[in-house]
Design goal:
By secondary structure, this protein is mainly β. The protein has one helix at about 150-155, and strands at about 5, 20-25, 35-40, 45-50, 55-60, 65-75, 80-85, 90-95, 100-105, 115-120, 120-125, 130, 135-145, 165-170, 175-180. The protein has one domain: Jelly Rolls, CATH 2.60.120.200. The chain has one helix and 15 strands; from the N terminus they run βββββββββββββαββ. The strands form three sheets. The chain has a seven-stranded antiparallel sheet. It has a six-stranded antiparallel sheet with strand order 1-10-3-4-5-6, with no helix packed on it. β11 and β12 form a beta hairpin. It is globular and about 40 Å long. The protein starts with a strand and ends with a strand.
Length: about 180
């Protein structure tokens, strides 16, 4: 699959808090990662091909320090897995299948820039390069503009998905933007 969604509104997320989440089913490729969501030079959630682990990271604090953390467990090839990361100004967390898997402390606010939010790819605007496409599939990718709790993530991942359609909407009540691919 070399299709991707590029959400160009740079103000989509309030960068002080966020959640990146969705279902991923991957198969090994020569790519370094399989991206779920990324905003270049700011933050991302991906799957590492070399270790089979989920990685969340970004650039934080006044010096834009590069910080990342990996899930402690590997995910088997070809398995539908729900992955999520949350950021609340102090902690970056990874959730796998609705369970908190890892916490990393971060040194301040997430990076701010005008780069687009990309789903299913790494997008490098200065080179107009797109890479790290997942081979397999993504479903029910959501980007709430707040740091959801473990309970909220677990509840949302249990809701049925009706794939594939792209919906980008702003939920005024819940304060989230939902990006959903379905056919």
């Amino acid at each position: 699959m070399n299709d991707f969604i590029n959400v160009r509104d740079p103000n989509l997320l309030e960068v002080r808090r966020y959640t990146l989440m969705g279902w991923i089913k991957y198969f090994p490729t020569s790519e370094r990662n399989a991206e779920l969501v990324e905003r270049a030079a700011a933050y991302w959630l991906n799957f590492r091909m070399d270790t089979g682990k989920v990685r969340a990271g970004g650039f934080f604090g006044k010096t834009s320090k590069y910080v990342y953390t990996d899930s402690p467990m590997s995910i088997p090839d070809g398995t539908c897995t729900h992955i999520a990361s949350t950021y609340d100004v102090q902690q970056l967390k990874i959730h796998v299948n609705g369970q908190l898997a890892k916490i990393a402390h971060v040194p301040g606010l997430a990076g701010v820039n005008k780069n687009p939010l990309a789903i299913s790819t790494t997008y490098i605007p200065t080179r107009n390069a797109k890479m790290n496409f997942p081979k397999g599939g993504l479903d029910d990718v959501r980007v709430p503009n707040n740091a959801l709790t473990s309970g909220q993530i677990h509840s949302l991942m249990r809701q049925p998905c009706h794939a594939p359609v792209l919906t980008v909407c702003d939920d005024k009540q819940g304060g989230s933007s939902r990006l959903r691919t379905t056919a």
